[in-house]
Design brief:
- By secondary structure, the chain is of the alpha/beta class.
- The chain has one domain (2-246): 3-Layer(aba) Sandwich (Rossmann fold), CATH 3.40.50.
- 43% of the residues lie in helices and 15% in strands.
- The chain is built from 8 helices and 7 strands.
- A 7-stranded parallel beta sheet has the order 3-2-1-4-5-6-7, sandwiched between helices.
- Strand 1 (11-14), helix 1 and strand 2 form a beta-alpha-beta unit.
- Helix 1 packs across helix 8 (225-232), helix 3 packs parallel to helix 4 (107-135) and helix 4 (107-135) packs parallel to helix 5 (156-176).
- It binds NADPH dihydro-nicotinamide-adenine-dinucleotide phosphate.
Length: 254
Protein backbone atom coordinates (compact mmCIF):
# COMPACT_ATOMS: atom_id res chain seq x y z
CA UNK A 1 0.00 0.00 0.00
CA UNK A 2 2.64 2.55 0.98
CA UNK A 3 4.36 2.04 -2.43
CA UNK A 4 1.29 3.65 -4.03
CA UNK A 5 2.33 6.94 -2.45
CA UNK A 6 6.08 6.48 -2.82
CA UNK A 7 7.78 9.26 -4.80
CA UNK A 8 11.33 7.88 -4.65
CA UNK A 9 13.19 8.50 -7.91
CA UNK A 10 10.75 11.24 -8.98
CA UNK A 11 11.66 14.90 -9.47
CA UNK A 12 9.10 17.62 -8.72
CA UNK A 13 9.19 21.29 -9.70
CA UNK A 14 7.18 23.57 -7.42
CA UNK A 15 6.67 27.16 -8.56
CA UNK A 16 6.51 29.63 -5.70
CA UNK A 17 8.14 27.06 -3.43
CA UNK A 18 10.06 29.52 -1.26
CA UNK A 19 7.28 30.02 1.29
CA UNK A 20 3.64 29.37 2.19
CA UNK A 21 1.69 26.69 0.40
CA UNK A 22 4.43 25.89 -2.15
CA UNK A 23 6.93 25.33 0.63
CA UNK A 24 4.49 23.06 2.47
CA UNK A 25 3.94 21.02 -0.69
CA UNK A 26 7.72 20.76 -1.20
CA UNK A 27 7.94 19.41 2.36
CA UNK A 28 5.20 16.84 1.64
CA UNK A 29 6.81 15.63 -1.59
CA UNK A 30 10.31 15.32 -0.11
CA UNK A 31 8.73 13.44 2.80
CA UNK A 32 7.35 10.93 0.27
CA UNK A 33 10.83 10.53 -1.27
CA UNK A 34 10.82 12.97 -4.20
CA UNK A 35 13.69 15.21 -5.20
CA UNK A 36 12.28 18.73 -5.40
CA UNK A 37 13.21 21.87 -7.28
CA UNK A 38 11.72 25.00 -5.77
CA UNK A 39 11.17 28.09 -7.90
CA UNK A 40 10.57 31.75 -7.05
CA UNK A 41 11.98 35.11 -8.07
CA UNK A 42 14.27 35.68 -5.09
CA UNK A 43 17.40 33.51 -5.16
CA UNK A 44 18.13 34.38 -1.51
CA UNK A 45 14.66 33.33 -0.33
CA UNK A 46 14.99 30.10 -2.32
CA UNK A 47 18.39 29.30 -0.82
CA UNK A 48 17.02 29.73 2.70
CA UNK A 49 13.89 27.71 1.95
CA UNK A 50 15.95 24.90 0.38
CA UNK A 51 18.14 24.76 3.47
CA UNK A 52 15.06 24.35 5.69
CA UNK A 53 13.76 21.55 3.46
CA UNK A 54 17.03 19.58 3.50
CA UNK A 55 16.15 17.28 6.40
CA UNK A 56 16.46 13.49 6.53
CA UNK A 57 18.55 13.45 3.36
CA UNK A 58 15.98 15.32 1.24
CA UNK A 59 17.35 16.40 -2.15
CA UNK A 60 16.37 20.00 -2.81
CA UNK A 61 17.47 22.25 -5.67
CA UNK A 62 16.48 25.80 -6.57
CA UNK A 63 15.60 27.52 -9.83
CA UNK A 64 15.06 31.29 -9.75
CA UNK A 65 12.98 32.69 -12.58
CA UNK A 66 9.85 34.78 -13.08
CA UNK A 67 6.97 32.51 -14.09
CA UNK A 68 5.22 35.47 -15.77
CA UNK A 69 8.01 35.79 -18.35
CA UNK A 70 7.47 33.21 -21.10
CA UNK A 71 11.07 33.33 -22.37
CA UNK A 72 12.47 33.07 -18.82
CA UNK A 73 10.21 30.05 -18.21
CA UNK A 74 11.42 28.28 -21.37
CA UNK A 75 15.05 28.91 -20.39
CA UNK A 76 14.40 28.00 -16.74
CA UNK A 77 12.81 24.64 -17.56
CA UNK A 78 15.60 23.80 -20.06
CA UNK A 79 18.16 24.64 -17.37
CA UNK A 80 16.46 22.37 -14.78
CA UNK A 81 16.25 19.49 -17.26
CA UNK A 82 19.93 19.75 -18.20
CA UNK A 83 21.20 20.41 -14.66
CA UNK A 84 18.96 18.04 -12.70
CA UNK A 85 17.01 15.82 -15.11
CA UNK A 86 13.46 15.17 -16.27
CA UNK A 87 10.59 16.75 -14.34
CA UNK A 88 8.07 14.05 -13.33
CA UNK A 89 5.78 16.25 -11.21
CA UNK A 90 4.91 19.92 -11.72
CA UNK A 91 3.10 21.95 -9.08
CA UNK A 92 1.85 25.29 -10.47
CA UNK A 93 1.59 27.16 -7.18
CA UNK A 94 3.03 30.68 -7.64
CA UNK A 95 0.27 33.21 -7.17
CA UNK A 96 -0.56 36.66 -5.85
CA UNK A 97 -3.53 38.53 -4.43
CA UNK A 98 -4.63 42.15 -5.01
CA UNK A 99 -7.68 43.48 -3.13
CA UNK A 100 -9.87 46.43 -4.22
CA UNK A 101 -13.47 47.04 -5.26
CA UNK A 102 -13.84 46.07 -8.92
CA UNK A 103 -14.97 49.57 -9.97
CA UNK A 104 -11.68 50.94 -8.59
CA UNK A 105 -9.40 48.12 -9.75
CA UNK A 106 -6.31 49.33 -11.65
CA UNK A 107 -5.22 47.91 -15.01
CA UNK A 108 -1.74 47.11 -13.66
CA UNK A 109 -3.16 45.07 -10.79
CA UNK A 110 -5.51 43.20 -13.11
CA UNK A 111 -2.64 42.30 -15.47
CA UNK A 112 -0.29 41.34 -12.63
CA UNK A 113 -2.93 38.96 -11.26
CA UNK A 114 -3.65 37.35 -14.61
CA UNK A 115 0.05 37.11 -15.46
CA UNK A 116 0.95 35.46 -12.17
CA UNK A 117 -2.11 33.34 -11.44
CA UNK A 118 -3.09 32.23 -14.95
CA UNK A 119 -0.64 33.02 -17.77
CA UNK A 120 2.26 31.55 -15.80
CA UNK A 121 0.44 28.22 -15.48
CA UNK A 122 0.16 28.05 -19.25
CA UNK A 123 3.83 28.99 -19.82
CA UNK A 124 5.25 26.58 -17.24
CA UNK A 125 2.92 23.68 -18.08
CA UNK A 126 3.54 24.00 -21.82
CA UNK A 127 7.31 23.94 -21.27
CA UNK A 128 7.28 21.04 -18.80
CA UNK A 129 4.70 19.04 -20.76
CA UNK A 130 7.07 18.70 -23.73
CA UNK A 131 9.25 16.26 -21.81
CA UNK A 132 6.35 14.59 -20.01
CA UNK A 133 4.52 13.91 -23.30
CA UNK A 134 7.70 12.54 -24.89
CA UNK A 135 8.09 10.16 -21.93
CA UNK A 136 4.34 9.33 -21.85
CA UNK A 137 4.11 10.09 -18.13
CA UNK A 138 3.72 13.07 -15.78
CA UNK A 139 1.71 14.66 -13.00
CA UNK A 140 0.61 18.29 -13.04
CA UNK A 141 -1.01 19.81 -9.95
CA UNK A 142 -2.47 23.30 -10.30
CA UNK A 143 -3.19 25.31 -7.17
CA UNK A 144 -6.72 26.65 -7.47
CA UNK A 145 -8.75 28.11 -4.58
CA UNK A 146 -12.19 28.18 -3.00
CA UNK A 147 -12.40 31.26 -5.25
CA UNK A 148 -12.44 28.84 -8.20
CA UNK A 149 -16.02 28.26 -7.07
CA UNK A 150 -17.10 31.16 -4.85
CA UNK A 151 -16.69 34.93 -5.04
CA UNK A 152 -16.11 37.38 -2.20
CA UNK A 153 -16.15 41.19 -2.27
CA UNK A 154 -12.99 43.03 -3.42
CA UNK A 155 -11.27 40.07 -5.07
CA UNK A 156 -13.18 39.66 -8.34
CA UNK A 157 -10.02 39.51 -10.53
CA UNK A 158 -8.46 36.85 -8.27
CA UNK A 159 -11.75 34.93 -8.45
CA UNK A 160 -11.67 35.15 -12.25
CA UNK A 161 -8.08 33.89 -12.36
CA UNK A 162 -8.78 30.94 -10.06
CA UNK A 163 -11.99 30.02 -11.91
CA UNK A 164 -9.86 29.90 -15.04
CA UNK A 165 -7.36 27.61 -13.31
CA UNK A 166 -10.11 25.10 -12.61
CA UNK A 167 -11.10 25.07 -16.27
CA UNK A 168 -7.50 25.12 -17.54
CA UNK A 169 -7.03 21.97 -15.45
CA UNK A 170 -9.92 20.38 -17.36
CA UNK A 171 -8.47 21.62 -20.66
CA UNK A 172 -5.04 20.15 -19.92
CA UNK A 173 -6.80 16.87 -19.13
CA UNK A 174 -8.63 17.00 -22.47
CA UNK A 175 -5.39 17.52 -24.40
CA UNK A 176 -2.93 15.41 -22.44
CA UNK A 177 -4.71 12.60 -20.52
CA UNK A 178 -4.56 10.15 -23.44
CA UNK A 179 -0.81 10.75 -23.63
CA UNK A 180 -0.10 9.58 -20.08
CA UNK A 181 -0.40 12.76 -18.03
CA UNK A 182 -2.63 13.31 -15.02
CA UNK A 183 -3.58 16.93 -14.42
CA UNK A 184 -5.54 17.85 -11.31
CA UNK A 185 -5.96 20.83 -9.01
CA UNK A 186 -5.92 21.41 -5.28
CA UNK A 187 -8.27 24.18 -4.11
CA UNK A 188 -7.17 25.29 -0.65
CA UNK A 189 -9.47 27.10 1.75
CA UNK A 190 -7.97 29.83 3.92
CA UNK A 191 -4.40 29.33 5.16
CA UNK A 192 -2.20 31.64 7.21
CA UNK A 193 0.49 32.64 4.68
CA UNK A 194 2.05 35.99 3.70
CA UNK A 195 -0.54 36.22 0.87
CA UNK A 196 -3.30 36.38 3.51
CA UNK A 197 -1.49 38.66 6.00
CA UNK A 198 -4.22 41.34 5.83
CA UNK A 199 -6.94 38.78 6.59
CA UNK A 200 -5.04 36.97 9.34
CA UNK A 201 -4.47 40.29 11.12
CA UNK A 202 -8.15 41.30 10.87
CA UNK A 203 -10.06 39.98 13.94
CA UNK A 204 -13.42 40.54 12.23
CA UNK A 205 -12.37 38.40 9.25
CA UNK A 206 -10.86 35.77 11.54
CA UNK A 207 -14.12 35.42 13.50
CA UNK A 208 -16.19 35.37 10.29
CA UNK A 209 -13.96 32.73 8.68
CA UNK A 210 -14.00 30.38 11.66
CA UNK A 211 -17.80 30.62 11.73
CA UNK A 212 -18.12 30.22 7.93
CA UNK A 213 -15.80 27.19 7.74
CA UNK A 214 -17.59 23.97 8.76
CA UNK A 215 -14.33 22.71 10.35
CA UNK A 216 -14.31 25.89 12.44
CA UNK A 217 -10.71 26.98 11.82
CA UNK A 218 -8.06 28.22 9.38
CA UNK A 219 -6.22 25.60 7.36
CA UNK A 220 -2.88 24.40 8.68
CA UNK A 221 -0.23 24.02 5.97
CA UNK A 222 0.19 20.33 6.82
CA UNK A 223 -3.50 19.87 5.91
CA UNK A 224 -2.35 20.09 2.26
CA UNK A 225 0.24 17.32 2.48
CA UNK A 226 -2.12 14.38 1.84
CA UNK A 227 -3.77 15.78 -1.29
CA UNK A 228 -0.39 16.82 -2.72
CA UNK A 229 1.21 13.39 -2.24
CA UNK A 230 -1.91 11.64 -3.55
CA UNK A 231 -2.03 13.71 -6.75
CA UNK A 232 1.74 13.42 -7.29
CA UNK A 233 1.81 9.65 -6.85
CA UNK A 234 0.66 6.47 -8.60
CA UNK A 235 -2.28 6.39 -6.18
CA UNK A 236 -4.02 8.92 -8.47
CA UNK A 237 -3.17 7.37 -11.86
CA UNK A 238 -6.84 7.31 -13.01
CA UNK A 239 -7.81 10.64 -11.43
CA UNK A 240 -7.80 13.34 -14.10
CA UNK A 241 -9.13 16.86 -14.55
CA UNK A 242 -10.37 17.04 -10.95
CA UNK A 243 -10.21 19.79 -8.38
CA UNK A 244 -9.87 18.60 -4.78
CA UNK A 245 -11.04 21.17 -2.25
CA UNK A 246 -8.98 21.15 0.94
CA UNK A 247 -11.07 23.78 2.64
CA UNK A 248 -12.60 22.41 5.83
CA UNK A 249 -15.92 22.13 3.97
CA UNK A 250 -16.40 25.76 2.88
CA UNK A 251 -17.67 25.13 -0.65
CA UNK A 252 -19.98 22.31 0.43
CA UNK A 253 -21.97 24.20 3.03
CA UNK A 254 -23.75 27.55 2.80
P1 LIG B 1 2.75 33.36 -0.67
O1 LIG B 1 2.66 34.82 -0.97
O2 LIG B 1 3.02 32.92 0.72
O3 LIG B 1 3.87 32.68 -1.61
C1 LIG B 1 3.86 32.93 -3.00
C2 LIG B 1 5.04 32.25 -3.64
O4 LIG B 1 4.99 32.50 -5.06
C3 LIG B 1 6.39 32.77 -3.16
O5 LIG B 1 7.30 31.70 -3.15
C4 LIG B 1 6.77 33.79 -4.23
O6 LIG B 1 8.17 33.98 -4.26
C5 LIG B 1 6.24 33.07 -5.48
N1 LIG B 1 5.97 33.95 -6.62
C6 LIG B 1 5.12 35.02 -6.68
N2 LIG B 1 5.18 35.59 -7.89
C7 LIG B 1 6.09 34.86 -8.63
C8 LIG B 1 6.58 34.96 -9.95
N3 LIG B 1 6.16 35.92 -10.79
N4 LIG B 1 7.49 34.04 -10.37
C9 LIG B 1 7.92 33.06 -9.54
N5 LIG B 1 7.48 32.92 -8.26
C10 LIG B 1 6.58 33.82 -7.83
O7 LIG B 1 1.39 32.73 -1.20
P2 LIG B 1 0.57 31.42 -0.72
O8 LIG B 1 1.50 30.34 -0.31
O9 LIG B 1 -0.49 31.85 0.19
O10 LIG B 1 -0.15 31.02 -2.08
C11 LIG B 1 0.37 30.05 -2.96
C12 LIG B 1 -0.72 29.68 -3.96
O11 LIG B 1 -1.85 29.18 -3.26
C13 LIG B 1 -1.24 30.85 -4.80
O12 LIG B 1 -1.53 30.39 -6.11
C14 LIG B 1 -2.51 31.25 -4.08
O13 LIG B 1 -3.41 31.92 -4.93
C15 LIG B 1 -3.01 29.90 -3.64
N6 LIG B 1 -3.95 29.90 -2.55
C16 LIG B 1 -3.61 30.40 -1.31
C17 LIG B 1 -4.50 30.33 -0.26
C18 LIG B 1 -4.15 30.77 1.11
O14 LIG B 1 -5.04 30.69 1.99
N7 LIG B 1 -2.96 31.25 1.40
C19 LIG B 1 -5.85 29.78 -0.46
C20 LIG B 1 -6.11 29.31 -1.79
C21 LIG B 1 -5.18 29.36 -2.78
P3 LIG B 1 8.86 35.38 -4.78
O15 LIG B 1 7.96 36.49 -4.29
O16 LIG B 1 10.22 35.38 -4.18
O17 LIG B 1 8.88 35.28 -6.27
Amino acid sequence: MSRLFDLSGRTALITGGSRGIGHAIAQALTGAGARVVINGRSADALAQAAQALRVDGAQVDTAAFDVCDSAAVTAGIADIESRIGPIDILVNNAGIQRRAPLDQFADDDWHALMDTNLNSVFYVSRAVAQGMLARGRGKIINIASVQSELARPNIAPYTASKGAIRNLTRGMCADWAARGLQINAIAPGYFDTPLNKALVEDPVFDAWLCKRTPAGRWGRLEDLHGAAVFLASSASDFVNGQTIFVDGGIVSVI
